[in-house]
Amino acid sequence: MACINDIPYEILLKGATPQECEDFIKKECDEVYHVKGGYKLHGIMLRGGDSIPIGIKGDDLIFQFIKPCSGLYILRYSDAKEDIEQLRNSQK
Fold first, then answer.
1. Name one Pfam family in it (predicted).
2. For 37-49, how does the pLDDT look when each residue is reduced to its tens digit (9 = 90+)?
3. For tag attachment on the chain, is the N or C end more exposed, with fewer CB atoms within 10 Å?
4. How many alpha carbons lie under 13 Å from residue 75 in its C-beta half-sphere?
5. Distances (CA, A) of 16 to 3, 11, 83
């Protein structure tokens, strides 16, 4: 299984609540999708319930990520064209 440290990412928000994550992604992104826990983004399994928000802004993915023992983060993964297409196709 891949590790979050295997992709270049930027931390946009840390220590947030699920609602703060949702609101941040909705505000910042042009498109927002919701996936279930276990969805793999670039081989990295996202943890959470039935509604994990992932946003698209240009060629960037902005998503909620749980770091064990640290809490919820919002991360930006730039130049994610392949992963964006995968996300869009998974929601059809």
1. DUF1894
2. 999 998 889 988 8
3. C
4. 19
5. 21, 12, 24
Q: How confident is the model at residue 4 (pLDDT cuts 50, 70, 90)?
A: confident
Tokens of 90: 């998974």
Question: In whole angstroms, what is the distance from residue 58 CA to residue 11 CA?
Answer: 17
Q: What does the block give as tokens for 11?
A: 């931390």
* pTM for the model: 0.89
pLDDT at 2 over 80: no
- The whole-chain average pLDDT of the chain stands at 91
